[in-house]
Amino acid sequence: MQFIQLVIGGIAQGCIYGLIALGFVLIYKATETVNFAQGELMMLGAFCGLAAMTLLGFPFWLAVVAAILAMAAFGLLLETVVIRPILGQPAFSVVMLTFGIGYVGRGLITMIPNIGTETHTLAVPYKDEIWNAGGLVLNVEQMAVIAATAVLCAVLYAVFKYSKIGIAMQASSQNQLAAYYMGIPVKRLNSLVWGLSAAVAAIAGLLLAPITFVHANMGFIGLKAFPAAVVGGFGSLPGAIVGGLIIGVVESLSGYYLPDGFKDTAAYIVVLVMLMVKPNGLFGEKLRKKV
Amino acid sequence: MTTNPPPVNGLPVLKLSNVESAYGPIKAIRGVSLQVRSGDIATVLGSNGAGKTTILKTISGIIDPRKGSIEFKGANITANEPARIVQQGLVHVPEGREVFPLLSVHDNLLMGAYTRSDRDGVVRDMETVYRYFPILKDRADQDAGLLSGGQQQMLAISRAIMAAPDLILLDEPSLGLSPKFTKEIFEIVVRINRERGTTILLVEQNANMALNASDYGYVLENGRIVMEDTCARLREKDDIKEFYLGMKEAGVRGERRWKKKKTWR
Amino acid sequence: MRFIFKTDYNLDINLAKHSGHVFWYSVLMLVLVAAPWLFAEYWLAQLTFVLIYSIVGLGMMLLAGFTGLFSIGHAAFLGVGAYTQAVFVNMGVPFPIALALAGAVSAAVGVVVGLPALRVKGIYLGIATLAFGFIVEEVLVRWESVTGGNAGIHVKPPDIFGLKVDSGIGFYLLCLLVTVGATFAILNLLRSPTGRAFVAIRDSEISAQSMGIHLARYKTLSFALSAALAGVGGALYAHKLSFISPDQFNIIQSVDLLLMVVIGGLGSVHGAFLGAIFLITMPQVISLGKDWLPDAIGQAPGLQSVVYGAVLIAFVLFEPLGLYGRWLKVRTYLQLFPFYRKGLFKRQKSFQKSDRLR
Amino acid sequence: QSATPGVSKNEIVLGTILDQSGPLASNGKQFRMGLQLRVDEANEMGGVHGRKIKLLVEDDNYDPKKSVLATQKLIGQGNGIFAVIGRMGTAMNNASMPVQFEKNVINFLPYAAARSMSEPPHPLKWANQPSQYDQARVAAPRLMKQNNLSKACILYQDDDFGAEVLQGAEAGLKTIGKEFVEKTSYKRGATDFSTQVAKMKSAGCELVVLGTIVRETVGAIVEARKAGFNPLFVGSSAVYNEQVIKLGGKPVEGLYAAMTAAHPYLDAAEQPVRSWARKYQTKYNEDPTVNSASGWGAMDAFLKVAFKVGPNLTTDAFVKTMETMTFPPDMFGMAELTFSPTKHLGNQFSRLSQIQDGRWKVVSDYVAFSGLKSVKDKDGKLVVQSEFFKDR
Amino acid sequence: MSQDFLLSARNLTVRFGGVLAVNKVSFDVHRGEVFTLIGPNGAGKTTVFNLISRIYTPTAGSIEYEGRVLTEQPPHRIAALGIARTFQNIELFEHATVLHNLLIGQHVHHKSNVWAEMFFTRSVRRAEVESRENVERVIDLLDLQKHRDSMVAGLPYGVRKVVELARALCTEPRLLLLDEPSSGLNVEETDDMAFWIQDIKNELGITVLMVEHDMTLVSKVSDRVLAMNQGEVLAMGTPREVQTHPGVIEAYLGSVEDVSFLRRETV
Ligand SMILES: Nc1ncnc2c1ncn2[C@@H]1O[C@H](COP(=O)(O)OP(=O)(O)OP(=O)(O)O)[C@@H](O)[C@H]1O
Ligand SMILES: Nc1ncnc2c1ncn2[C@@H]1O[C@H](COP(=O)(O)OP(=O)(O)OP(=O)(O)O)[C@@H](O)[C@H]1O
Ligand SMILES: [Mg+2]
Ligand SMILES: [Mg+2]
Q: What are this entry's molecular-function GO terms (chain B) (predicted)?
């Protein structure tokens, strides 16, 4: 029983990692950059929701929609203002940019008087609700995360696999020059991707808010989502989820059965082991240049 | 488009006036003016580093010219977004293949048709392409990056065909192709030109092929156009014969030692 | 413009390419040696930190800038060096020996990290080093008998076989010595076959291999050298701060180190120094600027990180080659004056190509 | 005039180094505003013996290295500073103190509750906050005894702060002959406490000592309530915070916390606190917190000493005076502070507060942790006895 | 194994998933000859090169080189054994100068000792000067003087091909593998290439194994030619023999020699 409860807890936590990892993978698949500001976008999304509910007095669901839209717009803006000017530079430059964006995002939120430095709660309708199923405690907040993660993953997977735009996004990440030659509007797609990933971040932020609270540093949880994405194979959407679940469950079990310290490093140990055994992750493509 | 009217050889579909492009401080082409008439095949000859690729890249908006202007179908497309230029019906088959290595061959072809919205036409052209290059059909699900060099070249050309453009810029299409396929490629190029009325601007090291297949030719040296004429006449020029067609009087080894360098300046 | 007529291959090999180099670098050295008598103590302390971070930066530069391997866990090596130094110095081991040990232990750890690096690259390597950084931090926390755990440990001042260096000036000169030594070692390495092998690996692994470069060996070597430099830097850091605790070597520190080399200018030794200067002076500049701003902004928490992030963004956007790149442009401008043409440094359109296939 | 750093004819320059942009920016900001409020008040009244107070604030991002640099900057800049007041964080203080002591700069009432703020003794070290260690040492055995509990657990943050609480609580339990049945920790910033709670639940704990700060406190308690695990929770002064109530809501009812200064509730009974809070509110447009009160208090203490020293302010004179100081309890309910040449930690008391009906209620008098001893009572049971022990 | 064979492949077979890229291919390369592989696109020529330079491992079969089993050597040892190659798609160190590229070619000839290098001892300096002299000889041979200090990234395609050849020569190989050396070169440059290959064979005494599509070049320089098709050996012999082999004409050369049929006038 205890074991099952731990696994359930691990799955719930894993879905959180997976959800954030989805955001990483999305950007990576479409632009081949790693967005170290994903956590901050998530934080901004949560603050948007908070603002919509407290300042504008929106009901919860409306606030959710508003926050997602606002963040999508923000993502577009971000792309136009800071990412686009260096489009085409090595991916690493963009990675550095995202560090900068992260700093600025966190700083700006912190600068808001009386709000930025505080921790807030988001009044979600299902707060603190639990289902008791045969002695197992199921947390509604976590169930919401699980459900949303599954749906998002399926939708994004389909987009990348079957839609022309999704394939074009991958194409421009693999060879931008060729994408231009084909008439793919690389810039527009790039905006779209950033908008999309900011929206995904907003969803993650809103789902996480009841679990981790809303505060300027809530984005740091993203540091655990990286290992999740890597374990699954960085370019794979289902991989992000599976990676998240693996890490969540390993964390949960090692937290209970192993001495202190293992829970917090479990994610990192798992990722190192994975990289030794299967360097491209579970679902990662086997990449080899043909000469 | 397959539905295009038969070729009306006449009006210039592409017109470069006084174009100058540079990489940083290095000027690669200067004062280049050329025209390609609708329905024609035009070719640019030139030795290594003459600036042929640079001309094509400037036309398709990959590099912005420092000076001069480029007109396509009467509209000024100087320094436009590459994507916009393609939408107007100008496709560039780049030097060095530039396939999408991690997409399947099929998806690569699909990307070639990105700007099109007529599904039926795309399906039809896909079949045409597969008929031209059956190996691509066999490998439709393989990652394009794993194709052999020549197969990738076929894919690059096919992608351009998939776009059903009005003008194709071809940068060394025969690079790395077997002799048999080189001929076939040129046949295909000529066929596309004849059957679909697609105008073609061709850059090719195989001058013999190029001069035979084209209507009009330009010779480029050190970034400047030094000669232009119909191909029929170019084929007869001594300089062309010697330097581009390899018909030297004496292939003596010693000659190379003091390198008779061609120059028109 | 300066034209140099070369008469000997040695001219290409020498570090100083012409007499101007010799002159200006000698002047710089003189100023640095005289610094304790030129600058106030506060500025000297800053300068000491700059030197320490330059050493670490050299290591980062070797790894990221020249070998093309990015580490997001480099603070771990800094930490290993710092703790090794602290433990040995507190045991009474003389400073030079402890410093060598700090470098060696870090290098050994670097080899261990380098091993997975042989199989993964790009983002995977980044995450592997990130993971490794967290694990080292955790070990420092848990291995209380040696590290003192979270409470941290105090470090005794350096003792060079009986000669105690407990003044700021003495320690500064010590750091200067180590920095100069490390810089020459790296410069020499970079003009030797090993340095070329690193660059080859950065540009194309497949052809490096076909040129007979043993990828595993050189990648590990790069990791080891980089870690050793970080370890030496960490050891000096431990002395300068005289108190170390595990959380000083966390992810934020690692990111700072990465930013340092990026802002300095990846792929140039100068960049390591310029980056270190930037990293240390930036917070000072911000807090100076604070007083000029209205209170609502100047005193607002978070200002520092906004400015920091904004500067970083500005650098990537406007000067991707970092401070060193900017300096090169200024220099060229001056040399060409008055013939400078406007388009000279116009950025070319460039196109991203997948790093996944390299 | 002597060449005392930071003191000039009409100015005393003080420095403080606080986290203004890092993980504890919120506390740092409130503390800074508290300090500044008192400075402004003093300057409006003409300063100290004709000298205006100037407070230089540095942000260290909760990073020891930056803290050292900031300290060096403060002491090296212009005429230097007379004292560092209320510097935040244990590691930051530990790293910076040697640097400033070299320059004979006092470390005055740091905003850190660790033993190293007053130990090992140093003439320039002056602290007023009972350490987390001592708070836990008093609170844990006391609640055990009071409620007749037998099994205690601890959940602590695995850093220097958590270690203080852990060691203190362990020492305290030892006085009543007990040990923790479960010790479990988490990393700073953790959000998932399910395994920790599961561990403590299966150990059957009745008292859980929390070496946690705000969010983790709430996270852990909420998780426990969901799992149907309802022991007594007690934390150090770090959980004594309005935020805990705001975030936690219902589940955190009943939580105990060790504390000294009481939260300045605006509708609080005492008039002086009310008018102080109003002043604060008008100045900063936000409600004061216990951090603001601590900042205000620290500056207030400094001013009192400086007044007492007289017009000839030197470091030596300040230290001499400080060694004789006794500060009566202030309006926030801070205990009496007494200092002596051998006693550099002013406060040796802490008390307990509990969340009742969404408010912190003080539920005990001050308890001294120095005089604590355990005695066998007539039944042979161990009892904690203290000269100060006095339950309400 | 006879001393005349520098390299001999026996029953080489490689399978990539469903594709049988090379199927039971055997051949011998004699010391001091130019041996050419031809064949239609996708015949498996480059794959054979990749097998020799150990980028791929054969599914079956073996390669012997100077009496050693090559397939047991790690990839980085190949250069040290005296085998150098060029790549079909050019794999240069883009962000380095031509000189730098060529110096890397000298890598195998240095016992690099990190400590000595850090102090840049006299012997390191001597070795550096020596490398430079070797490199300069290659630069002279291939007429690369004016590109010596240019960044590779900015060079035209044709020059890069030459630089890659030069880099391979700098490893001072005994066996040189050239993958389509003339692709992207015009007639005149191809002529130069032919002369160079002959120089390399005759003056430097290096054995050349080449993949090439330009039949003029092939006939000019090769001693023997092996034609492949779909991973299998189709024909082997002198250039003349192979060019007249019906299977080769059918699969590779195509039948029409005259290309004037392309002209518009003739349609
Ligand atoms: N990225 C670049 N950076 C700097 N210079 C360049 C760059 N690309 C080309 N050049 C220079 O521009 C000139 C023209 O190059 P271009 O590629 O157009 O020649 P080309 O005629 O296509 O030659 P090839 O036949 O080799 O393909 C060359 O001298 C070359 O050195
Ligand atoms: N790594 C690989 N994975 C899958 N298939 C491969 C791989 N490498 C080569 N192939 C396939 O093996 C076949 C032979 O390829 P190879 O590159 O050897 O051809 P080639 O003879 O060099 O042709 P070309 O003249 O076009 O360069 C091709 O069909 C190619 O698709
Ligand atoms: Mg070209
Ligand atoms: Mg090939």
A: ATP binding
